[in-house]
Amino acid sequence: MSEEKTAVQRLEEEGDIAADYLEGLLDIADLDGDIEIGVENERAALVIEGGDLAHLVGKNGEVLEAIQELTRLAVQTTTGERSRLMLDIEGYRADKRSALTKLAEEIADEVKSKGKPIKLSPMNAFERKVIHDTIQKTGLSSESEGEDPDRCVVVMPA
Asked: Which DSSP string corresponds to 106-134?
């Protein structure tokens, strides 16, 4: 039990370090935003909301991904350990997760009815994870193939 508590405490510390870094970034850019810190799926999770932050998401979440990587590096520099924190801005990832879950459920139905594998378009690691998690819940299997940035998910019949 104490090991689990220390893991949660470590993730909360990661979240605090990340929030300090992001607050500095928002200050430099003269942007307003509220930062919420939590722990989700055994990783620190931060959400920035408020103000006009859409440009921090960028086209297809590219700017969000870059800010997330910089924030992970800032945490790693402070703690000496690799961070897997997730960052969301203005609900972009939450909306994306919902859309991907729906897509995965539709693909699962199609694979079940046709009995043939379906290869999806290339996706980033976050998107692939949502697809894999959803497909697993349907009783089917999936795997990633290819190399980034062309890595994609293939959904297979049971």
From this structure: HHHHHHHHH-S-EEEEE--HHHHHHHHHH
pLDDT, one tens digit per residue, over 68-107 is 999 999 999 999 999 999 999 999 999 999 999 999 999 9
What Å distances lie between residue 126 and 24, 72, 82, 130, CA to CA?
25, 15, 17, 6
Domains and CATH numbers, the chain: 2-90 (3.30.300.20), 95-156 (3.30.1370.50)
Compute φ and ψ for 121, nearest 5 degrees.
-65, 160
Backbone phi, psi, residue 35, to 5°? -110, 125
From CA 116, how far away is CA 135, in angstroms rounded? Answer: 14
Contact (Cβ atoms closer than 8 angstroms) between residue 16 and residue 75: no
Task: Output phi, psi for 16, to 5 deg.
Answer: -65, -45
Q: How many residues does the chain have?
A: 158
| pTM to 2 decimal places | 0.82
Candidates 79, 71, 76; CA nearest to 47 is: 71
